[in-house]
Write a structure and sequence with these properties.
Layout: E1 3-8, H1 13-24, E2 28-33, H2 36-49, E3 55-59, H3 65-77, E4 81-87, H4 102-130, E5 134-138, H5 151-171, E6 177-183, H6 204-215, E7 225-228
Parallel strand pairs: 1-2, 1-4, 2-3, 4-5, 5-6, 6-7
Helix pairs in contact: 1-6, 4-5
Length: 233
């Protein structure tokens, strides 16, 4: 059975950079995002550079539980082994805690916490059975320290961070690695038309390089977490 890395939110930003990073070390990929067109374009780009890889695409809106289930079912139907899981998908919406709609909190909790939970539960179990694998959570510095005017986001990331800490304890006896990556301000589309100098941000490729470096360590070593902060933000 072939081994693959599953990346959520793979079509742009950090997910796209991670796809390039994992392809560069010869890993077959399962790429997930909402836009089939963006995924197809990324696949064409990657195969142009790495034609030996098998790249499979699953375009689903993971903010919907039924589509999350379809993603899981689609992978199970392909009889492939997800040996690396990258929970990259996330959403950030700033807002005043007392004024924002309840639906905002519910949406961020589902995308930022529930999606990683269900994917970790599904594919982490198979990793444990096979006694191999690596789970990465692209969390956020907001998972350890509150962010002003982003209380719901911070709560969702605290929960994701807690999930990763508990998962590490659960899986270490099964030889499965678990790593949280906690970036600060990273230059992605969530910053919109910011006037801040792009060079001051963490770059998406910085996160990809950090993730790839973890995979190059010996099997006996686990990187529990990586904190990445802008130098002069």
């Amino acid at each position: 059975m072939k081994k693959y890395a599953l990346i959520t939110g793979a079509s742009e930003g950090i997910g796209r950079a991670i796809a390039y990073g994992l392809a560069s070390i010869g890993l077959n990929l399962v790429l997930s995002a909402r836009s089939a067109d963006k995924l197809n374009a990324l696949k064409v780009e990657l195969l142009h550079i790495y034609p030996q890889l098998d790249i499979q695409l699953l375009a689903f809106d993971l903010s919907q539980k039924n589509e999350l289930n379809l993603l899981i079912e689609g992978i199970s139907a392909r009889t492939i082994f997800i040996s690396i899981l990258v929970n990259n998908l996330g959403i950030y919406e700033p807002g005043n805690f007392f004024e924002e709609a309840d639906a905002v909190f519910e949406k961020m909790m589902f995308i930022n916490t529930f999606v990683p939970y269900f994917l970790c539960k599904t594919f982490g179990k198979e990793m444990a059975i096979r006694q191999e694998g690596h789970i990465f959570g692209i969390v956020s510095m907001a998972g350890k320290a509150p962010v002003a005017d982003a209380m719901s986001y911070s709560i969702s990331k605290f929960a994701h961070y807690g999930l990763m800490q508990n998962l590490r304890l659960e899986l270490k006896k099964s030889n499965v690695h678990v790593t949280s990556i906690l970036p600060g301000s990273t230059l992605t589309s969530s910053w919109g038309d910011t006037q801040i100098d792009p060079k001051l941000f963490i770059q998406a490729n910085d996160i990809a390089l950090s993730l790839v470096s973890c995979l190059k360590l010996t099997n006996g070593a686990n990187v529990d977490e990586i904190n990445i902060s802008p130098l002069n933000f």
